[in-house]
Amino acid sequence: MEPKDEFLQALQHSLSAGKFVKLTLSKSGGEDKDFKNVYGRLIELKGEKVLSFTLRYATRDVTKNHSVAEGTAMVGLWVGHDFLNADLFTTEADLSLQYNRKRKPRLFRRKASQQAAPVQQHDKKKQYFISAQGNAYLHAMGISSASGKVRADGQRKFRQINKYIEIVDSLLQQHGQFPEQPHIVDMGSGKGYLTFALYDHLVNNRKLQPSVTGIELRQNLVDFCNELAPKAGFTGLSFRAQDIFDYQPERIDMLIALHACDIATDIAIAKGVRAGAEIIIVAPCCHKQVRKSMQPPAELKPVLRHGILQERQAELVTDGLRALLMEEQGYETKVFEFVSTEHTPKNLMIVGIKGKANPEARQQAEQLKQDFGVQEHYLETLLLE
User: Fold this and answer.
1) Alpha-carbon distance 85 to 30, whole Å?
2) Does an H or E element contain 37, and which?
């Protein structure tokens, strides 16, 4: 029997006989180098046994649940293609399937490292950074009821708020030395969902003493937020009705700009860079400036003659250049998908943590501009002023 077939047979046996402990797949071998590893466990979900996989990528984790049969089939597809190492732990034996450089497999069997199968975990209630219980601002914004229960029509926003706080908290952990009394600016704060939640998290979970300023053009939203902040007990949170271009703070430790349209994102990034912000978080929308002047290479013109594809290409070029220009200024960047609360269903999020400059960023940006016939990127212009 082939080593892979023997491994999969052992997996099927352990699952059917109640001997399964856990499964790990590692050593990326496929085309997607960001796909780092897979961790598999057996859980009980709605009364059924399912294989729950945590797919770990470079910038995110994804959890997928499959029936036992489907899960076993998925392992068969991953092993030997996406991953070159597979480790199965059972109460009878530990098995390790390893592929060499020529993709030739070998199966190793060792004494079981665990003598009893773990108790099958049920689908646990998710623990949120922000609780709806006793939260005045969530009630005032229509997300929760007076009793502190999330309303049916507020579930989506509540999950999005907590996902956003999860991202910010991860960035704070990566930074490590964030000030205890930071000044945080949210440019384009809108209705304030995320701004209030961030202040709540920093004060009540992180035990910091922040000063958070929300900048928003619409006076009615600013008035609403300024009236709500003291009612929520958020004394360090305030909002200003002002154009972000005119806002000139003395200091910024964290700059946030979500949904800033077109060059407004560039204005926000430039202000953060000039102020020496430790963390910059932007989720751009609209990418008109680069698209108007972009001249794609000849080999891409048959594809980019379609307007929607040209628009998406312009978005990639615009945000790719933004990340490189931030790296030139001494920020370590990540770009990933973020589901927002308003205006757009989902965006790319660009985050930068102050660190070492990328010495190749300038050359890479110039090459990208040349490849796509981009004469000017507005962020570059702002940073040169």
Assistant:
1) 12
2) strand 35-45
CA dihedral (26, 32, 35, 40) in degrees, to 10, reads -60
Residues 118, 91 contacting (CB under 8 angstroms) = no
Same domain, 114 and 162: no
Strand partners, 90: 20
d(CA 38, CA 66): 14
315 three-class SS: helix
φ/ψ bin of 80: left (φ > 0), alpha (ψ from -120 to 50), beta (otherwise): left
Question: Could you list the residue range(s) of the whole structural domain that residue 22 is in?
Answer: 3-122
Q: For residue range 66-99, list pLDDT tens digits in order.
A: 999 999 999 999 999 999 999 999 999 999 999 9
Helix axes of 307-328 and 361-371: crossing angle, nearest 10 degrees: 160
* DSSP-derived secondary structure for 47-73: TEEEEEEEEEESS-EEEEEEEHHHHHH
Length of the chain: 385
Of 122, 147, 170, the residue that ends a domain is 122
Q: What is the dihedral of CA 181, 183, 186, 191, to 10 degrees?
A: 50
| H/E run at residue 36 | strand 35-45
Residue 166 and residue 95 share a domain? no
Supply the pTM of this predicted model.
0.68
Same domain? 150 vs 31: no
* Residue that the structure tokens 């059917």 belong to: 16
Q: What are the pLDDT digits (tens) for 91-122?
A: 999 999 999 988 999 999 999 887 777 766 55
Q: Which residues pair with 241 in a beta bridge?
A: 216
Q: Is residue 129 part of a domain?
A: no
On whether residue 130 sits in a domain, the answer given is no
